[in-house]
Amino acid sequence: TLRIGVPVDDWMAGNAYDLVFTGLRGEENTRRREWLAANGPLYRVRSGVGGRCCPLWDWSSGDVWAYIRLHNLPVCGA
Question: Mean pLDDT throughout 4-8?
Fold first, then answer.
């Protein structure tokens, strides 16, 4: 995991990114789940300079593991 030391929206703006895809899932956090349910998985960041897409927002843990198995992806042991 990359630690950038600033909020991701600020980092995006400072590095000229227009759209960032994140692997965040609603199941992992109640506040995030409520936000994504209300705003959808593609939305403008708070500073208005770009967008964020959370394509896995409604995936369960089982969905993630099934995808990993289906595509024989490597898994980090940590």
Answer: 77
